[in-house]
Amino acid sequence: MMSRGIVAALLFVLSGTCAAQAEPHFESDVRGIFKKHCFHCHGEEEHPEGGLDLRLVRWMLTGGDSGAAIIAGQPADSLLYQRLESHEMPPDESKQISPAELAVVKQWIAAGAKTARPEPTTLGDEYLITAEERAHWSFQPIQRPAVPAVQHAEDVANPIDAFLLTKLEQHGHRFSPQATPEKLVRRLTLDLHGLSPETKLVAEFQASGGEADWSKLVDKLLASSHYGERWGRHWLDVAGYADSEGYSDIDAERPHAWRYRDYVIRAFNDNKPFDRFIAEQLAGDELITSPLNDLSPDDVELLSATGFLRMAPDGTGGAVDDVNMARNDTIADTVHIVSSSLMAMTLSCAQCHDHRYDPISHADYFRFRAIFEPALDWQKWKRPNQRLVSLNTEADRKAAAKIEAEAKLIDAAVAEKRAEFIQATFDEQLAKVPAELHELARAAHAAAAAKRTTEQKAIFQKYPHLNVTAGSLYLYNRKAADELKKMGEEAAKVRAAKPKQQYVRALTEVPGQVPTTRLFYRGDYAQPKQELQPAGLTVVRESAGLAEIPAQSSHLPTTGRRLALAEYLTDAKHPLTARAIVNRVWMHHFGVGLVTTPNDFGVLGELPTHPELLDWLAAEFIESGWDMKHLHRLILSSNAWRQQVRNNPALQELDPDNHWYGGARLRRLEAEVIRDSLLAISGELNPQQFGPPVPVMPDTVGRIVVGKENLNAGRPGAVIDMQGEDLRRSIYVQVRRSRPLSLMETFDQPTMSPNCDQRRPSTNATQSLLMLNSEQLIHRSRKIATRLIQERPDDQQQQLELAWRLIYCRPMAAAELADAQAFIQQLVESLASQPAYQPQGDKPAAKSAEEEALAVLCQVLLSSNEFLYVQ
0.70 exceeded by the pTM? Predict the structure, then answer.
């Protein structure tokens, strides 16, 4: 079955906005086909091949070197149609025209090769954007539509419900009933925190469950620091966050990238207005007020924010085959991250030629790239370590200088004392040498080793005990050597008090250093063409009437281009940014976006399932001051979000993909949520926030696990005790591009290449095998069993009931209790026959059969769909 995106693209190509017309026109029906297959050679080049330019119909009628390309009304006699039909053109087999597209071309020529309107007299070098292309939904201004009236007003908690219910009612359906309180609390906590809820949270809401109590619960969870950890992870996906450079197999570590991760978490927890969040990430360095060598704490945060533009793979810190290509690849990936995350457009498709589907020219791409080039100048490139900004302040440097002066006093005393000890020891050894050699020996000892004469060297070879040095002093006088060592340690201790050198991985411009941006012919940096000025997308400028991005700011020492871009993207007239952001938020709450292709609002992307709702949410988001938590409250207070999982066969037949939102969507937990929930349920979760990442390492069989390898242990697999650091939330675990954590990779943790626009969960046998055999899961299951026994001692039924509430967040049924007890009894009997579970003489059994049976039951529960999916 073809996806809705492909169907939408074919509809656009075959019929465009004029599908209802009785006869085809060039602009709406045929131009898209030629743009996709032919413009590459017959429209984009300065000199079209064969002298034939297919961008205007009158040029086709005139023709090129071979004569007229088309004869109106006569497709069989039209040279262009003949070449397409025979597959002589396009010459590239992978770009051959499809039968359906060929039929449209034939029909258009047969109907007279008509245009929808008079064609321009000339095109020159300008990129032609047709009225049909400008009319695409995503380029239209964001307008707040009226909230529709519905038949069942009692189903409407807020405007979101009205927009969704309208479509359901059109087909004779309503929302599904509300989910049970237990399922709602679990769904809400997983949505906002990425953790299984505490049992008391479920119990508290069960006891009340009113609308006001629901709002209080939502507010309580939004106020928790866990909220930023959960929603920060979503943003880090689209930002391409990684703790390593990628690009090559070396995959060097990024020891300071974590400051950007912490910035993102804090921004979400502080509910930073999203327009400000965007501005700081694009241009935090242009917002700071303190100097780079004496940054205030607020400005450190602003510089940390620019880590957004330093997340792309960057291999320029090491050896690469083509350093210029590596530099330009980093810039290209940065442009992709920015455009896909903030504009939901596939801008990268125009890197080598005009976009084949969307109205984005090759020049548009390089105009957009020009915004970043003053900071990412490929010809005056800075390697990753050259872009680090020290966080030490002037006060830190003064303190360090004072401490260093103290340490140097000790160093001087050490040097003086060392000289005394060496001289005294030398004099003792000199007494063992004939007196007539003393003068020569003293001269040799006083001379530097490299400057000794042949005669001086000879005496030291004959009497090696005379060669008393700082390195050999301990051989003669252990007490003196120990005294010097102690003094040296004192100096080291003094120096250890210096403020530690810290850095931030940032993007900055050099004032006055503004490179010239040129279009790269076919994307090849070795073929620069015309100079270009910074700009946004032409189609957006034409449709929204936004002011252009200036090449140089009048009030900043830097160009200010990135700050201007931030203002441009968050202008209420910009049609893409707010829509892209609210669509992503919707996707994370409902499992799919209102536009199910969150990084592609273009022709090949899906059409919005509810365009009016998307615009209403975007307008509401802007008018709320880009308030993210306000957007959460709206969605979470809707009846649509609180529905039970859809179980309506009639509705499912009409709407198999649940695009009408007639019930909740069953969703698999994400990789990080699985790991973090396991830690929370077992009671092991370390709540420590922020700071350098928890390292990962290969275990003895090559799986990547959390841990720090002890390379000095002399045996593979030896680890250093992490002191609980390994039990922190997954967002703090190192994201090493070449070392994805095995547990999370199995559950579809994305690879950042360069970013992740949308997670795509899979279902495969490897996941089940991991849940059955993973040492980590077995360990977690035993920890949970220990917790159950500690919290409900000597009462098996209470232990089982607690297990159900911890893992499933609901009470267990009577039948489940009977089955669980029978399972444990059978397993205890089986285990009891094994030596490890039997007492050895006076010694008690090494293991408890009852506790191990309970642990196995916990593993079964954790491996079940009820735990791994959210309802």
Answer: yes
